[in-house]
Amino acid sequence: MAETTPAALVADLVDLLDVVAVDVDLFRGRRSTGGVGRVFGGQVVAQALQAAQRTVDGRAAHSLHAYFMRPGSEAAPIDYRVARDFDGASFATRRVVAWQDERPILTLTASFQRDEAGFHHQSPMPDVPAPETLRSERAWRIEQRETIPERWREPLLRERPIEFRPVAPRRWTDPTPREPVQHSWFRTVAPLGDDAAVHRAILAYASDTALLSTAMLPHGVSWTTPGMQTASLDHALWLHAPVRADEWLLYAADSPWSGAGRGMNRGQIFTRDGRLVASVAQEGLIRRRAG
């Protein structure tokens, strides 16, 4: 990408997560600019959600459940076939299959609901420092650049459209076990427009960040540990209320269990004023191979 201003970074992300119709209920998502590796799972989830959103009128997505089957490649676009399973008075349900190189790489189901009032309660937001008092994840990575494997150094240090500010940054080379809890503030680095579907897609994209690593904290390992094999297996997101992805959001993640080569992770996403706007659950592969 030639231009790396905050506005250009965010515009490129919005374009990346957009999908274009190529046939009835068939959409295509473009590949990452300059991509050469495995597709980020959040990108596939967000593009699949965008494809489903294109087939629903008058309702907003309130939940999605996705299964990752195969790694996608950044070298080619991805096609999304949508099945309109149900359209009721209040709810609608869509099924999406993501295809690349004539093979399915992800399945996603999403439910949509018309806006209505109802009983309300929520968990309290954790008491954490304000984002202005914290350093960005990129600043911490630059400080630790010599500890990052050379093949990952450039992609991990590049400027990104979403800024994360961790409350307790982790040094990847530090094997000290930690409690399986991570708190991070995040938002896009430039303002977005007012399209609520775009904000939901970007939240879905960001929800796959800083989650799987939570299950590795008690074991003193990370994705940089020699022999570690990690991958998202499934991903669920519940959207409780309208959200703006260009305003600070707190991602509070924890891991209640790991075993059998898998780790379970949960997340809650709060607005700065303490409203719980989304919940996340994900199981991932955290396997360490001998040798």
> If you compute it from the alpha carbons, what radius of gyration comes out, rounded to the nearest whole angstrom?
19 Å
Spatial sequence of strands, sheet with the most strands: 1-2-4-5-6-3-9-12-11-10-8-7
Indicate the overall shape: globular
Mean pLDDT: 92
Proportion of residues in β-strands: 35-45%
Oligomer: single chain
Reading the helices and strands in chain order gives HEEHEEEEHHEEHEEEE
Distinct helical segment count:
5
Strands, helices and their partners?
Blueprint: H1 6-17, E1 19-23, E2 26-29, H2 41-53, E3 60-68, E4 78-87, E5 91-100, E6 103-113, H3 137-143, H4 150-157, E7 162-166, E8 181-188, H5 196-206, E9 228-239, E10 249-259, E11 262-271, E12 276-288
Antiparallel strand pairs: 1-2, 2-4, 3-6, 3-9, 4-5, 5-6, 7-8, 8-10, 9-12, 10-11, 11-12
Helix pairs in contact: 2-5
In brief:
Helices cover 18% and strands 37% of the residues. It is α+β, with helices and mostly antiparallel strands and 291 residues long.
Descriptive terms for the model:
about 290 residues, single chain, alpha+beta, 12 strands, 5 helices, about 35% strand, twelve-stranded antiparallel β-sheet
Task: Give an overview of the whole structure.
- The structure is a single chain.
- With 291 residues, the protein is α+β, with helices and mostly antiparallel strands.
- The chain contains five helices and twelve strands.
- The chain has a twelve-stranded antiparallel beta sheet with strand order 1-2-4-5-6-3-9-12-11-10-8-7, covered by helices on one side.
- A hairpin with a 3-residue loop joins strand 4 and strand 5.
- Helix 2 packs antiparallel against helix 5.
- It is globular, with a radius of gyration of 19 Å.
- The model has no long low-confidence stretch (mean pLDDT 92).
